[in-house]
Amino acid sequence: MVFQPIPSRATADEVARQIQMLVLEGVLHPGDKLPGERDLSATLAVSRPILRDALKALEGRGLVESRPGGGTYVAAIEGSVFAAPIVELIAQSPKAGGDYLEFRREIEASAAAMAAERATEADRTILSRIIETMETEHGKADFRREAALDVEFHQAIGEATHNIVIIHVLRACYRLLADGVFYNRSRLYGQSGSRDQLLAQHKAIRDAILAGDPVAARKAAVDHIAYVAASMKDAAEAGAREEIASLRLMQFEERATAKRPVRRE
């Protein structure tokens, strides 16, 4: 269990602090369900009234949320890097996708190098198990599942840095990616050979981190983002060509229709 018994004469504040620490350190993720009241109070070695007070305080701070009949969950606290009006403007900007990938290249390269230096055995196990799941799911060609695992893998690298700012900045950053603010990831996964390339790149990052090689980890992360940037550029150009070609076909058919002689009865 990730929860630890509280020393005797525990207060609600002490219970709340333990849960807050687990959220801050990235142990508990947004959407994670907390154990039921009876089990959690027993694990923490506190009374149920004290636990209720702690959860009520955490809910008041927006860290957890109660769902009627469904228990208590970690709230969607990853937030947003930008306010809604800026997000809307960014989504309309033709250069936002490139700028976002440039940002990711720098922060993910640093995170991968830091993870190679700091990752514990538990961190390495998590990364390896995510890659194993990626390999299992790879043959199913399920874009949504692969995209979700992609984000999970990069978040795990951030967590392996043991830097709480990097952990939460990356989470907010990936939330924008998942929402499709910067670019449509289905285009990336839909390109010929891209799924194989992405899996190989993720494995290269994993291998470098497991080997404790920060130089190789940084390079693997930079190479990965460079591939994503080039692929998205190719996809955008191919999409533009397809759009123009479709318009040409429409106009071609209209001209052909106009040139047909009118049959007189």
Automatic annotation (TrEMBL):
Reported function: Transcriptional repressor for the pyruvate dehydrogenase complex genes aceEF and lpd.
Keywords: DNA-binding, Repressor, Transcription, Transcription regulation
Domain HTH gntR-type positions: 9-77
SMART domains: FCD (SM00895), HTH_GNTR (SM00345)
Annotated InterPro entries: GntR_C (IPR011711), TF_FadR/GntR_C (IPR008920), Tscrpt_reg_HTH_GntR (IPR000524), WH-like_DNA-bd_sf (IPR036388), WH_DNA-bd_sf (IPR036390)
Protein name: Pyruvate dehydrogenase complex repressor
Gene3D superfamilies: GntR ligand-binding domain-like, Winged helix-like DNA-binding domain superfamily/Winged helix DNA-binding domain
Species assigned in the record: Kaistia terrae
Keyword Transcription: yes
Pfam families listed in its UniProt record: FCD, GntR
